[in-house]
Structure formats: structure tokens, C-alpha cells
Amino acid sequence: MRMFAVEYTYSREDADARLAARPDHRSWLSGLVSTGVVVSAGAFADGTGALILVAADKIGDVDALRKLLADDPFATGGFIHGVQIREWSPVLGALSD
Length: 97
Prior knowledge:
Blueprint: E1 3-9, H1 15-34, E2 38-43, E3 49-55, H2 56-59, H3 62-69, H4 73-76, E4 82-88
């Protein structure tokens, strides 16, 4: 399964405000999980960011993905300080074809 690996970068300085927005962020992600767009998502243990795995066949291209990510409550709240998107094709393990 071809995917996009989306890496968010957060600032520790707005951690409390981001925590307050987390329920809306998780609700947004849950909706995308239920439609199969998001395969998995989670924050890094050190609190500096998160990883979101997106099914490429459900979203299309990077431009469509960027438009989708702009609707994330963390994005609209200004809590995402960097976004890196890479196409990823797992070849072994649970996420491989």
C-alpha cells in the first residue's frame, strides 16, 4: 500500500494550548481513520511532533493532502510549526501489500 508519511513539528512553547485543542484534532483524525484516509497517527513521545500515515489511493496527490491537512484543528489553531510529507511504500510487515 502506497502511503504518505506526514510529519508534524510542534513547539513546546504552545503545549498547553495545543493540549486544549487535542480533542478537536483527534476527532478530525478519527473521521479520517473511519473513511480509510488515515491509516495510523500518533504523537512522538518527546512531544516535538507527530506522524500521520495517509493512504495515497484515498487522497490522490500531495496537493490534495496539503489541502486536507489545512483543515486540521492543530493547523487552524497555529500549533503546527512544520510539515514534512514523504511518499512511503512499506514492503515488509503489517502495512505492506
